[in-house]
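Usage

Read records sequentially. Each one opens with the input sequence:
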Amino acid sequence: MAEDRSGQIAVMFISERTGDDAEGYAAAADAMDRLAAQQPGYRGVDNVSADGLGITLSYWADDASAVAWRTHPEHSATREAGRGRWYKWYRLHVADIARSYSWTRE
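and closes with the structure output:
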């Protein structure tokens, strides 16, 4: 069942990949998922990708936690690698979640 995200910070990362070094990208994405989950204030992640387009939503307890993740040295280094190798472009949006709803088919 989905978690109530009310009051959390959502970091929305929307990207298009180059298609270069797919194995390197997958390894880096895996490493970043594991590293993010160890950070103070981390509350979870949702992601989807198809045809080189990706959307990743990471959830944080507060803005300070999201900023700390943005400036984490390993995350910063991987972001730079992504700019040089894996991404055609990306957009990032940060938002406060005012309300959160979910529904699940039984």
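Summary fields computed downstream for this record:
- DSSP finds three helices and four strands in the chain.
- The two ends are 11 Å apart (CA to CA).
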